[in-house]
Amino acid sequence: MPLGDVFNKNQVKDTNNKKKVPDGIWAKCLGCRSIIFERELARNSMVCPKCDFHHPLTSVERIELLTDENTFREQDGSLTSKDSLKFKAEKTYPESLQKAQKNSRLKEAVIGGSAKIDSVPVVIGVMDFRFIGGSMGSVVGEKVSRLAETALKKKVPLILVCASGGARMQEGMLSLMQMAKTAAAVAELDKAKIPYIAVLTNPTMGGVTASFATLADVIIAEPKALIGFAGPRVIEKTLKERLPDGFQTAEFFKENGMVDLIVSRIDQKEVITKLINFLKR
């Protein structure tokens, strides 16, 4: 009997008839690699129920998570960046801005305004890493500064949620100037004894870390968030030393006094409410 007759059509399984899992049902955890129902992950504020890995949130999702329903009122939502330096690379700066605006549906890398947290009026700003890596250009610096000024005028707490890769290279020195500008703006809150709370998410790097993100009265970080100024490889080459294990994680910075609290995303609204009530005394 020819060998081919042994494996006839009735005996061989058709591998092309495998059922495919539709998109939008399952998600793979970026931490433990477990397969999770997307709805379950969303209900848990994008925190893995198995390993507590904190997946990224958009700025809109973050505002919905932290503020009371239907209380957020955006300010300065129409501000957009300009190509003052006529930056040239593989893509022009306007092309990068247009792509970021299309993908994120945002005008810039930070969205902010007035809201309430557990019925307490606040001013809140949230950075979005999807917009050119949450980089801080002139508009981001301007919007953060204006949020601080609004909090000062209204005499209400300021909450800033940070997610950034650092300065926006397409704006060169104009971007670096925002470090001093935002630092000066939040310093006025300190003089007026108005509470300022920063929440550092993964990642918070570069000029944002070196300015307003680490000047708050209380600095909260999400578990295992990457925090720092320069990248670890740059630091190792500069120091010519191997960095400690866990360097630039939220846990490392808390242990060394730069971060006050590490708070799971699920508990942040409750913790921020308690901090506001305490700092307002």
Could you provide a short overview of the structure?
It is built from ten helices and nine strands.
Structural features:
35% helix; 2 domains; 2-enoyl-CoA Hydratase, Chain A, domain 1; 10 helices; alpha/beta; two-stranded antiparallel sheet; 281 residues
Task: Note the overall shape.
Answer: globular
N-to-C order of helices and strands: HEEHHEHEEHEHEHEHHEH
Count of individual beta strands: 9
CATH superfamily of the largest domain: 2-enoyl-CoA Hydratase, Chain A, domain 1
Kindly report the average pLDDT value: 91
- At the first level of CATH, the class of the largest domain is Alpha Beta
State the helical fraction. 25-40%
Query: Strand pairing plus helix content: what structural class?
Result: alpha/beta
Strand share of the residues? 15-25%
Largest sheet, if any?
A: 7 strands, mixed
Structural Rg: 23 Å
